[in-house]
């Protein structure tokens, strides 16, 4: 036994509540029912609750149990989407952790969608989807769904620089160079949308994928015939895009597609190009709400 | 030429300002002068400014030029710390990007410090340091410095569970089991502090390292003699720690060490244990200000 | 047109055959039929053929087409195992690339297996499986199957060092310390087996997982009740293992389990411990054949 | 005590020698003296010896001590190159591990070199260098040095496909399209050379970097003025390269540059393009000896 005053100060010193306590990197297969059939997603989950200042530790095994119970149910009754799953987990976490006032679940998984190339070659394309839910006691749980799309951007700035140079070097072609797409650097681009799903609303991740691919210089495909390659290269050069353009085009498409969503709807859009002429990447990002975008 | 109304709406649609636009993953060697001599850090930098709604693109080459100018100067006149460097870059970024109202620089690097084991074996230990600065036009630039320390945690909960079991199995030893450290699971732990450095104040990253290592069950070392190993194992088991304990002990030590820092000082502490009995990790985190911690 | 002799020498210079040419990081969902039901694996594939010295480029789109055809078939008729799939792909690759004499396919995927904790708590545990096939024209295709298991090792050396120290400090307990497991450092361990499957033979990856988990100080589990934790900690400390021990125990179990396999059977066993008392890892490895092991 | 026969069989079972036993991921700053001054490299080391069948464990702390002794010396007397350092470590490892017949050291580090853009903008470019040494008792230690260069490749195949398409669409330009570089997909490429340094020979890593950059469609640069960008884009499109071309051009340049190296000289060349029109990469590789290349 130690001197009470010491105990007090000791307690006082350490009496800090914690923002997030839980488990990270939990791997689970999840059955998701999509309009076109049931899919197994191999997901990675982070599962947290907060911890009040007067409790030493959180019962983390409950976090894994909650994921087990909810996820294993999906084998019998597949969920509509990962965001539902995350939300259900957040609610059950607050039920199991009586002392917690906040719960949070983050789920990431590879996702596949059948796509058609310009020349109608179909292939199964890979995307990374992400779902997130934040539970607050006596409040509605907030849901977020997101996706990362790998595509292609072509640089508008270098294109014009080259066009000027070519005109000087090839006066015999001259103005005709304004009629054809001109060489520039292009590269692999990763664009991510993470967006709140207002309660009572639905959001189909395939629509987010479509919005992003329409905002890039071009979508990419696993299988391409020779004519497909030429077609995609031309399309990409007819739509030169800065990462700034990609983010703005996505934002504008989201506002249109989800115009009925409230001003409070949170949205993040990030586009990163693995510059082919540099060793570093170029990035543009907007973190905002629908309200701010509508101003 | 296209229909003016279209142009207007088109412009309207895309008239979004961007939160962050810039380059990521720029690699640079940086000369830093420490009290005990000059060190070369191999750093990775992310460099951003914001972009107003009426400008299509940011001039990203300026970001790399700024890092080149400021960093190359360090060869002639080494900086005191990475946070100074980040701050100088933020100021120069706002100067070069006349249209920007915000600038941000994030620097990460491996860092080495000579440490002594319990039995006085010295070795050069590795840490990851991080500096961050946020510049706002007509405001003071905010500086942050942080470090990630790899150490060891031993689980208090499993230890007591085992102690009870051993007492039942070995009544002949019985109460004596309260006098010796008992087996439990222990593991590699990564604890990170990221903290604001108020203007006019100084913060030595080596002090943060010391605070974190004192808050773990034990620090770890690259070179250990046999007696060192036994010593460290015993120390670690005499200080069993949950990740929750680690975060709270760090917070409490920071409040003491920097008690003269203002309430506005921002601080993040995160501790993650790569649980040896699970395939997933355990994490605890607090994101707060000195003011909230002092309540 | 250039001087023939130049052309010859130029050709001579570049007339190099290539060992491997193909695509890496192709992502595919694969349906695998296991005794206990069909599973969807989210796989990552590398697909290569060699290239003769007189041909400039390989038709890489065929590699992706081959994976598409073979893998998509699995939706209708799931394969028995990834090694069958890899072998089928190798054969089809040689068919499609008439100029190739060698083909190679490497597949990696997350894998899940239901396991029971000591106290009969069941959870779905995660493993990484890997399959590999090497095709040679006019030769039998060689198949390999492998798995990485995350488990726990406890250090025998530190344990004895501590035991000696404790005996000195606690003479009143003295010899009784030989009867109980003594504290040491333990940590997360990753052990990998990659093994050839001789033609006409079968190899069940679940058996490899069992062999590895039996060779570790203890297997790990996602969900553990308090009594489970104590039980696992005790088991792990009753089986202290160096990475060297783990590799040798796995090798010896493989020789027993597959004693009918020919001497030519290739096998690699690697065990890496994320040392809790060091910032670096400890690794032991054996790359050999059954013949060498039987000497 | 247990039944002798059991002991024998038990021993027999586990009497396996191990190929490699040691430590991985050891981080160290290393002082390297280059013709143009001394540089600090932040290196990551793997350090192994083999283990005879009759010894249970290897003394791994000696591996870290050896790296400490040799590397710390570099602060006073910088080494010429990482391969010397790796070789010295291999020799000392065999000295310290009397029971070992083999030793191996692998070192990786970021490396920086000042480069000039087409328009004479200078910037410090980043490369990853690697050194490797293999020691065998009573044999000469073998040294290897390698480097990974990030550059740019443009696809020759898509370029011709597009040229054909453009000619059809723009008959008014027609044949003039043969006189200008035509759009294609280009991307970030990573090309790696790993090469043996015969005893008595020297090999300057900067020469390897030059050879690789000359074999790509274009080198890349951190800082580019607008005219630089146009210049590099044009150069890259005037040198369209498959990964196959890159590997063969590097092999041919190595044979020329090091024509006095013996036939036994081992060399690996690998080129991987992060295809901008696909989500997967394209890879070409040759693993061989100078002798085979000279056939």
How would you describe this structure to a colleague?
4 copies of one chain form a homotetramer. By secondary structure, chain A is α+β, with helices and mostly antiparallel strands. In chain A, about 35% of the residues lie in helices and about 35% in strands. The first copy, chain A, contains 8 helices and 9 strands. In chain A, strands 1, 2, 3, 4, 5, 6, 7, 8 and 9 form a 9-stranded antiparallel beta sheet that branches. In chain A, a hairpin with a 5-residue loop joins strand 4 and strand 5. In chain A, helix 2 packs across helix 3 and helix 5 crosses helix 7. Chain A is elongated and about 80 Å long. The N terminus of chain A is likely disordered. At the B-D interface, strand 1, strand 2, helix 2, strand 3 and strand 4 of B face strand 1, strand 2, helix 2, strand 3 and strand 4 of D.
Provide the gyration radius of chain A in Å.
24 Å
| Greatest interface by residues involved | A-D, 48 and 48 residues
Question: Ranges of chain A with pLDDT <50 over ≥5 residues?
Answer: 1-13
Overall pLDDT of chain A? 91
Ends apart, CA distance between termini of chain A: 63 Å
Question: How would you sum up the major sheet of chain A?
Answer: 9 strands, antiparallel
Determine the structural class of chain A based on helices, strands and strand pairing: alpha+beta
Task: Give the topology string of chain A: H per helix, E per strand.
Answer: HEEHHEEEHEHEHHEEH
The helix content of chain A, as a percent range, equals 25-40%
Multimer state: homotetramer
- How many H/I helices of chain A? 8
Number of strands of chain A: 9
Shape of chain A: elongated
Strand coverage percent of chain A: 35-45%
């Amino acid at each position: 036994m130690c001197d009470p005053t010491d105990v007090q100060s000791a307690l006082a010193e350490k009496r800090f509540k914690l923002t997030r306590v839980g488990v990270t990197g939990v791997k689970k297969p999840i059955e998701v029912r999509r309009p076109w059939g049931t899919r197994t997603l191999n997901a990675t989950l982070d599962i947290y609750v907060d911890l009040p200042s007067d409790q030493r530790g959180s019962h983390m095994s409950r976090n894994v149990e909650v994921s087990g119970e909810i996820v294993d149910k999906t084998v019998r009754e597949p969920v509509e989407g990962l965001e539902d799953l995350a939300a259900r987990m957040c609610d059950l976490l607050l039920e199991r952790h009586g002392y917690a006032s906040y719960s949070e679940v983050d789920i990431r998984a590879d996702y596949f969608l059948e796509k058609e190339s310009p020349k109608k070659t179909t292939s199964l394309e890979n995307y990374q989807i992400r779902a997130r839910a934040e539970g607050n006691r006596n409040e509605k749980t907030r849901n977020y769904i997101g996706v990362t799309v790998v595509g292609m951007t072509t640089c508008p700035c270098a294109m014009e620089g080259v066009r000027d140079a070519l005109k000087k070097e090839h006066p015999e072609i001259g103005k005709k160079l304004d009629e054809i797409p001109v060489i520039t650097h292009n590269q692999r681009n990763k664009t991510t949308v993470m967006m709140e799903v207002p309660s009572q609303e639905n959001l189909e991740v395939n629509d987010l994928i479509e919005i992003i691919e329409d905002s890039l210089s071009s979508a990419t495909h696993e299988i391409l015939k020779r004519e497909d390659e030429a077609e995609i290269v031309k399309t990409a050069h007819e739509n030169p895009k800065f990462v700034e353009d990609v983010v703005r085009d996505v934002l504008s498409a989201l506002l249109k597609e989800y115009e009925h969503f409230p001003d409070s709807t949170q949205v993040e859009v990030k586009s990163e190009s693995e510059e082919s002429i540099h060793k570093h990447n170029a990035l543009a990002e907007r973190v905002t709400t629908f309200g701010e975008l509508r101003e």
